[in-house]
Amino acid sequence: MTTLQIPVVTPVDGGGVLSLLWLVIALPLAGAAILLLGGRRTNAWGHLLGTATALGSFLIGLLTFLSLLGRDEGDRSIGQHLFTWIQVGHFDVGMDLLLDPLSALFVLLITGVGSLIHIYSIGYMEHDDRRRRFFGYLNLFIAAMLTLVLAADYLVLFLGWEGVGLASYLLIGFWQHKPTAAAAAKKAFVMNRVGDLGLSLAIMLIFVTFGTTSFAGVSAAAGGASEATLNAIGLLLLLGACGKSAQFPLQAWLLDAMEGPTPVSALIHAATMVTAGVYLITRSNFIYEGAALAQTTVVAIAVITLLWGAIIGCAKDDIKKVLAGSTMSQIGYMMLGAGLGPAGYAFAIFHLLTHGFFKANMFLGAGSVMHAMDDEVDMRHYGALQKAVPITFLTFAMGYLAIIGFPGFAGFWSKDKIIETAFDQNPWIGVAAIIGAGITAFYMTRLMLMTFFTESRWSDDVHPHESPKVMTVPLIVLAALSVLGGFLLLGNWIVDWLSPVVGVAEHHEPAIPALAMTAIVVIVVAAGVALAWFTIGRTQVPREAPQDVSPFTRAARADLYGDAINEGLVIRPVGNLVTGLMAIDHTIIDGAVEGQAAGMGGLAGALRKVQNGFVRSYALSILAGAILVALAMLVVNL
Amino acid sequence: MSDFPWLSLLVLVPLAGAVVTALIPAGRGSPLPKQVAFGAALLTLAVAVVVTVQYAAGDGMQFTETHEWIPAFGAHYALGVDGIGLTLVLLTSLLLPVVVLASWRDADEANTSAFFAWMLALSGLALVVFTAQDVFLFYVAFEATLIPAYFLIGSFGIADRATRSKAAMKFLLYMLAGGLIMLASVVGLYAVSAQAGEPTYLIPDLAKLDIDQTTGRWLFAGFFIAFAIKAPLFPVHTWLPDTTAAATPGTSVLLICVLDKIGTYGMLRFCLGLFPEASRWATPLVVTLAVISIIYGALLAIGQKDMLRLIGLTSLSHFGFIVLGIFVMSSQGISGSTFYMFNHGVATAIMFLVAGYLIHRSGSAKISAHGGVEKVAPILAGLFLVGGLGTLGLPGLSPFVSEFLVLVGGFDYSWVVGAFAVTGIVLAAIYVLLMYQRLMTGPSRPATAGFKDLNSREIGAITPLVLVMLLFGFFPQPALDVINPAVETTMEVVGQSDEPPVVPASEQEDHQ
Question: Is B238 close to A619, i.e. CB distance below 8 A?
Answer without folding.
Answer: no
